[in-house]
Amino acid sequence: MAERAWRKTQFLEALADPGLRRRARLALDAGPLCEHCLGRLFGQVDSGLANPDRGRLVRQALDAASSEDPCSVCHNLLDTMDRWAVRAEMALRAVESDTFAVGSHTDPRIAEREQALWDTVGNGTAEPYKQEFNRLLGTRLALATGREVDLAHPDVLVLADHRTGHIRLQIEPLYLRGRYRKLVRGMPQCRWKEWPTSIQEIIGDPVLREARGEDHRLHGCGREDTDVRCLGRRPFILEVRRPQQRHLDWSALVAEINASGKVELDTLTPCRRPDVAHLKGLRPDKTYRAIADLASDVPEVTLAGLAELVGVIRQRTPLRVLKRRSNRLRRRRVLNLTWRQLTPRRLELTIRAQAGTYIKELVSGDAGRTHPCVTDVLGVPATCAELDVMDVHVENDQEPNPNDPGGAPPG
Length: 411
Ligand SMILES: [Zn+2]
Prior knowledge:
The protein is an alpha+beta fold. The chain has 4 domains: about 60 residues, no CATH class; about 100 residues, VC0802-like; about 110 residues, Alpha-Beta Plaits; about 110 residues, Alpha-Beta Plaits. The chain is built from 12 helices and 15 strands. The chain binds zinc ion. The site of zinc ion has 8 residues, from helix 3.
């Protein structure tokens, strides 16, 4: 209290300055102003006082009576914070969040009148009315709800439309990281109408139900073909749009998902939007197990030729994906390859390869489009009968990319 009184004294002393007095006079003569809009013009004089305090002190210093007329700048918008706060609190309470921020769709007419006042009084560096509005509403909502203001990464952005008087919530998606194993063949990673279900739906549907969100997306660290199992753990991030709930029983959800028998998770852990870009940027090696069927019997001694496949291979876009992807030549590194003969016509290959290697084509050769390949080195047509991802070699999928701040702060 003593400090506030001291600040007021300091402010009044500063107003003895002839330049400041002249500006205060110009402001009062420009038209009726509420204490917010008057005080905001003098924000730089003392940063420790609230705008209405400054406004009252300016009037006191100039012996001016407060005005009964509506404010010529904000039309008393800033005196209606109680009503805005009640509406915003109701909206915010319907959605679970730890943090929030307030943003405004401004009324351009208020901004124009404010600019005209700055032109007259000569303070273009004063705080814009929107900023004061956002701060006042944010402070009230923080007090009323016990939630924290987070301007950089709010769970919910409370948007006040000054033209219509409406409050709208922009709800940040819920991001959950985990690693999945895909235990069955014949299932795509993402929702696809030609298939009855997908990894995305098996993981996303129960979470969506509990979070009471609108939709989900699955961001995988790469993906396996529909007919390929993933027995090693592949990192992913599930994104749930417009969640009403953010604190869910993660272990119960993991148990429910694992009961599908098709997909198995280790954990579900909340993460943030920048983690998606980081995950997408990872290009980990993978280890595969491929079952190769040979068109004729191959003596075991010939199999030593498979060692030639370790190193750089050249792959043209496979015929089976040419419809979706452009035809180009890529070089990929096969880092390791071991084999086991199961029958004279069947091999089990364990292959560690760089991200983006087409393994089925490494076996078959894809009519000459992949070179070298199993077909080449054995001199017998080979096809990939079964394929499993055995390991996704991610060193660190937890570290967000420091170059991506994760979106701009709200306006
Ligand atoms: Zn005003």
